[in-house]
Every structure is written in structure tokens, then in C-alpha cells.
């Protein structure tokens, strides 16, 4: 008789912080590979490359803050979920800067190292997003924006997410030409990430669900507000 595998319990709070740390790590690895970063981070990357006095992490939560304000204006409401989503973006920004500092002396120029690094960044980012999904805690404002606006106007989420991602890529390319006369931050890695990350998230979630059981604190404000509509 087959034995039923006992799942290991894991707190959703732990998953939340694992997701934050891993996602910021994946962003920095993608930058190190020089093959292009995810569309959601491309715009602050271009701007921070021009105005290097301000870090990528700082520009990232300023950018997320703008999306936070736009979300409030479109939805015509402000909720705890939105506020905590912005707080998440601040923590995310600081962890990006932390990884950037810790990996500051690492420079990868060889092709045979850059490709695996790009692939590894996609895998790490996928696992991080899976942790965010399973934690049921506040998402970053950009993710909240695509989710909430699509729901409000009855737009297919996948279609709306694709359109917003493409819009960010186009804006990043325009700013790149304005600031540097060439494209930076956008490359084959950006396209590969967009195509592969959904599949990788689903695969990692299947493996995770087979081995772990998420323990959600019912009294947690995070868990409650993430189910707001």
C-alpha cells in the first residue's frame, strides 16, 4: 500500500519574506547577466542608470508608488491592501539594493556564464512569485494594478497583463534612446522571462503543493486584507 506523504507545514509569513528576498535576488542576477530584465523592473532600471545618484531599489519603490497612486485614482478608493502593497514595494526596493551591494564585485562577461545566469534568474524569480502567491499576502502595486483594474472593467487578466507589460517595455525603450541613444535593460532575457515565467511558476507550485502545507494566520491583517474586493 502506498504511503501518503505527510506535508510539511510552513507559515505564509515565511513564504512572504522568502518571496521578497528571492525575487530581488532574481532581479539582480538578471542585471548581472546583461541579457535584459523583467518588464516590471525595466523602467526604474533605465531611470536609475541615468540618475545613478539614486539607487535602483529607491527608483523602484518611487515607480511603484506612482502606480499605487494611479491605482487609487482609477479604483476611486484606498484600502489597507493597497497601502500594504506599497509597503511591500519599499521592502522589495531595499532588498534589491542589499543584493546589489553584496554582489557588487561580481562581473559576468563570458557567454557560457551569462546564459546559465539568466536561466537561473528566471527560475529564482519563478519560485519567488510562487511563494508570493501561496502566502496570500499583499502583492506589489504593479501586480495589484493589473489584477484590480482588469477585474473592475471586466478585461481578460492575461490580455491586460500582456498589454501593460508591453507598454512598460516600450516606455523603457523610449527612455533608453532619450538618455543613452541605445537600448539598455531590455533584451532577449526580457522576452524569455515573459514567455517562461508563467510556466515555471506553475511547475514550482505543483512541486511545492506536493510537499508543503501553507499555514495562514487567520488573525493576520495581511491575510485578511488580501482577500478584499
Structure description:
- The chain has 229 residues and is mostly helical.
- It has one domain.
- The chain has helices spanning 12-33, 39-50, 56-75, 80-102, 111-135, 141-152, 157-180, 188-211, 221-225, and strands at 8-11, 212-215.
- It has a two-stranded parallel sheet with strand order 1-2.
- Helix 2 crosses helix 3 (56-75), helix 2 (39-50) runs parallel beside helix 7 and helix 5 (111-135) packs across helix 8.
- The model is unreliable at 221-226 (pLDDT under 50).
Summarize the entry for a quick read.
The protein is mainly alpha-helical. The chain contains 9 helices and 2 strands. α1 crosses α4.
Summary keywords:
2 strands, 229 residues, mainly alpha, 3% strand
List the helices and strands and how they pair.
Elements: E1 8-11, H1 12-33, H2 39-50, H3 56-75, H4 80-102, H5 111-135, H6 141-152, H7 157-180, H8 188-211, E2 212-215, H9 221-225
Parallel strand pairs: 1-2
Helix pairs in contact: 1-4, 1-5, 2-3, 2-7, 3-4, 3-6, 5-8, 6-7
**Which class best fits the helix and strand makeup?**
mainly alpha
The value of Rg in angstroms is: 18 Å
Distance between the termini: 45 Å
Contiguous runs where pLDDT drops below 50 for at least 5 residues:
221-226
Main β-sheet: number of strands, strand sense, barrel status?
Answer: 2 strands, parallel
Characterize the overall form: globular
| Strand order, largest beta sheet | 1-2
The SSE order reads EHHHHHHHHEH
Helix count, DSSP H or I runs of 4 or more residues:
9
How much helicity do the residues have? Answer: over 70%
| Record field, number of beta strands | 2
Let me know the average pLDDT. 87
Total separate domains: 1
Estimate the strand proportion.
under 5%
